[in-house]
TrEMBL record, chain A:
F-box domain location: 22-58
SUPFAM superfamilies: F-box domain (SSF81383)
InterPro entries for the chain: F-box-like_dom_sf, F-box_dom, FBL60-like
Annotated protein name in UniProt: F-box domain-containing protein
Highest taxon above the source species: Eukaryota
Any Pfam family: F-box
From TrEMBL, chain B:
Protein name: SKP1-like protein
Assembly, per entry: Part of a SCF (SKP1-cullin-F-box) protein ligase complex.
Gene Ontology cellular component terms for the protein in this record: nucleus
Location of the protein in the cell: Nucleus
Biological source species: Salix koriyanagi
Amino acid sequence: MEHQRSGSQLKERMFQVEAIEEDRISQLPDHILSIILSKLLLQDLVRTSALSNRWKHLWALRTNLNFDMDGIFESNHGRPHFSTKQCKHYKEVKLEFARCVDGFLQNFQGTKVISFKLHFLKHLGDTFSMNRWIRSVIGLGIEELQLVLSGMTFSYHHHCR
Amino acid sequence: MSSSTDSPTLTTETTQLSPQPDTETAKPTKKITLKSSDNQIFEVEESVAMEFATVKSFFEDSPSTDTVPLPNVTAKPLSQVIEFCKEQIKFKANPDEAQKKKYNAEFVTEKSDKDLVDMIPVANYLEIKDLLDVLNQAVADRIENKSVEYVRSFFGIDNDFTAEEEAALRREHAWAYEGVDED
C-alpha cells in the first residue's frame, strides 16, 4: 500500500477540502451506490437520474420494485403521499397510479428485477394494465411476484437456486 | 512512519475501550496502529482492527508491519468508524439484537449529514459491511422526498447537465417531481 502524499500536498489538499467539498459519493463503485438506491422510495429513486451524468442510469440497478397505491409508491414512514383519502375520485386515482407505473416501467432500463410487488384496491384493478406491467418485468429474473388486491394477497415465490 | 519499538506511542487520538490503565500488568491485548491520511495515529485493539477487512488482509500480506497507513481515510470519519466497530465487537461477545438495533439507530441519528456521507467511502474502503448497510439506510432515509437540488448538496454532487438535458429528464418523469418537500 503506498503512502504517497507529501506534507505540502497534504496541506494543499486540506485547504481544497475546506473550499470545495469533494464528491466522494459519486466516485464509489456502482454496486455500493446500488445499495443506497435499493433503499429509496421509487419516486425518490427516479429523481436520482437528474442528479448528474454519473447517476443518470444508475437507477436501473434497482432490483426490487414495489408499487403501492396507498402511498405511491411504498413509504417507509407512512407518509401519505398519494392517498385514496385525498378526496380524489377513485377513477382519477386509478388513472394516476397507472400513469406512474407505466411511466416508470417504460423508462426503467434495469436488466434484472428480483422482486415485483403491486398493491392496490381490487375494484380499482385493471387487468389489462396489470398484465402489461407483469409482462414487462417477467423476463428479468423475477423470484418474487406479489399482488395485493383489496387486502387479499396472492404471492408467487420462485426459487431457481 | 518509522518509530523505534520502545518509544512512547504518538497517540493524538486515543481509543477508550475501557478505563483499563495501559500497564504491562493488564492482560496484554494486541494493539494495532492505524494512520489516517491526515497523519493521525489511532491505536486500536486487534479485534477491532480485524473488523476492517482491508486492514485484516494487509496484515495477512505483511504480518510484521507495526503501522497500517490508510491513505484514503481522514481522521474524523475513521474515529467514528472505530467507535462503531468497538460496539459491534461487544455485541459479538454478548449478542443482543434489540440493543444492537438501538445502538445502530442512535449512532446514525446523532451524526450530521456530512458525517454520514463522509463515512460511506471509509466503510467501503475498509470493507465493513454492517456499517455500510446502516449508513446507506440512514442516507436513504434522509433524502426521502427531497428535491434533486437538496440531494445534490447533501452528497456534494456537481450538476454536469446542461439546462436542456436536465429539463428533458424531469419531463420524462414529471410525476416523480410532484410534491417533494420544500428545501
